Amino acid sequence: MGRLWTFGQKLSAGFASMVVLVLIAAAGAIYALDHVAERNDRVIAVEARNLILAGELRVAAEWKASALRGYLLLRDDDNLGTFRTAREQVQDVLTRIRAQPLDADSARLLDDVERTESAHQGACEPLIVERQATGTAESTGRAFQERALPKMKELRQQIETFAKHQERQLEQGSRDAAAAAARAKTALIALVLLAVLVAVGLALALSRALGHQIGSAVQHVQSSSSELQTAANQQASGTREQSSAMSEITTTISELLATSRQIAESAQRVARIAEDTAKAARAGELTVGKSGEQIGAIKRQVDLIVAHMLDLGRKSQQIGGILEIVNELAEQTNILAINATIEAAGAGEAGRRFAVVADEIRKLADRVGGSTKEIRGLIEEIRAAVNTTVMTTEAGTKAVDTGTRQFLEVAVVFKQIVSSVGTTTDAAREIELSTKQQATAIEQVNIAIANVAQATRETEASAGQTLQTASQLTGLSKDLLRLVQPQADA
Q: What angle is formed at CA 91 by the lines to CA 141 and CA 318, rounded to 5 degrees?
């Protein structure tokens, strides 16, 4: 079927194939960007969020334990209210974690945390009731050591296990996102290389087909010229119709000239359109390059998020160390309180000893207050790290938006290419129409020359002129054939 196609149809097919290749490359780039953005959103919205909530759960549980110790020691309503509030916060954080997408291991660890927290709450409530019923600090302290403290240690261990698991999930998500970006880059490069190879193949095939078609046409012209030369050799006489035949030849040549000018103008239009198409393609290439830079910016933003998350983990470890100091101070305070109670049972001189013990209790309370301030400072640092993470996430979102706008620009450029190709097709059709008109005019020239040959057979001068013209046409056709098919010289 390709042999039956005209010059314009083959040229249009070549341009259409190039546009299809460009659109395929653009579609592959958009798919790769969407895939990488999806992986990054998963890391930011799920793994990082779960790690933050695990930190909040750790802080709320320690706050609850500290408030319980304070109430059992001092028996004041402030610490009891703080204990209730901390309990509500623990439940709220557990609810928010449960609302997040969790894998099977995370869900299992969270179930263990909820069961242990409920068991710890069940151990704390009787202690509170006992302390409210005028129980002594010594008895409630022993009960706390036997019933509540083991549950609290178990709860700390399970929360730490859950947090470490979320850190591993975050690291794995980051590695998966980086691997997805690398795979997308490799696939895009392969797709572009494939498109270039296919385009080169199409160009070679189209040039060979057009050269063969033009060569065949030139051979036909050469054959016709040979026949014309033979007819000119047979001219002998007759001049009565020479004048009218020459007029027809002049008119036909004028038509040929006009048609040739139209072909030249159409060819110039094709050249200009091709240049515009090339410029539009280069603009599309630059836009794709900018989009690649935006993808790199997204990756850097994700790296910043991971760094801030790691910093948040280190701060949480420092909080754990300070809380150990608070636990130690609480135990010492409990021992001093017991001693003070024993001394208070005395009389007289024992009152001064009780004052010394009370002073020691006050000093220990000051140390507990200082540790509490340090805990608050670290919590503020954690909040600052969280805020920085949120800002970095917003920057990553803006980078994704910028990349999307760049790809929209690529789509606009490709639309311009399609429009230019349509205009090129119209110009090719005009070339085709002009070629048909030229063929008709050539047929008229042949008829007119035949009439001249019949009318001037008896005129040797006219016959010689016609013979010379036919020879020149044959030589020109051979030269044209050598230009199109260099192997014809052989």
A: 65
**Alpha-carbon gap, residue 160 to 179, rounded angstroms:** 29
457 backbone dihedrals φ, ψ, rounded to 5°: -65, -35
Q: Which residue has the higher pLDDT, 194 or 341?
A: 194
Closest CA to 311 of 55, 42, 50: 55
Listed by start position, the domains of the chain span 2-489
Q: pLDDT-derived band of residue 85, with 50, 70 and 90 as boundaries?
A: very high
Total Cβ atoms within 10 A of residue 295: 21
For residue 427, the tally of other CB atoms under 10 A from its CB is 22
Give me the phi and psi of 129, to 5 degrees please.
Answer: -65, -40
Q: How far apart are CA 56 and CA 53, in angstroms?
A: 5
Q: Following CA atoms 407, 413, 414, 420 in sequence, which dihedral angle do they give, to the nearest 10 degrees?
A: 180
> CA separation (Å) from 374 to 170, 327, 365?
28, 14, 14
3-state secondary structure of 459: coil
8 Å CB contact between 400 and 38: no
Question: Higher pLDDT residue, 221 or 255?
Answer: 255
Digit-coded pLDDT (tens) for 372-388: 777 777 777 776 776 78
- Within 8 A by CB and 6+ apart from 429, the residues are 8
Is the distance from CB of 454 to CB of 238 less than 8 angstroms? yes
Neighbouring C-beta atoms of residue 69, cutoff 10 Å:
24
> What are the pLDDT digits (tens) for 121-175?
888 888 888 888 766 767 777 878 888 889 889 998 999 999 899 889 888 888 8
Q: φ, ψ for residue 465 (rounded to 5)? A: -60, -45
Residue type, 55: G
Q: Is the pLDDT of residue 1 over 60?
A: no
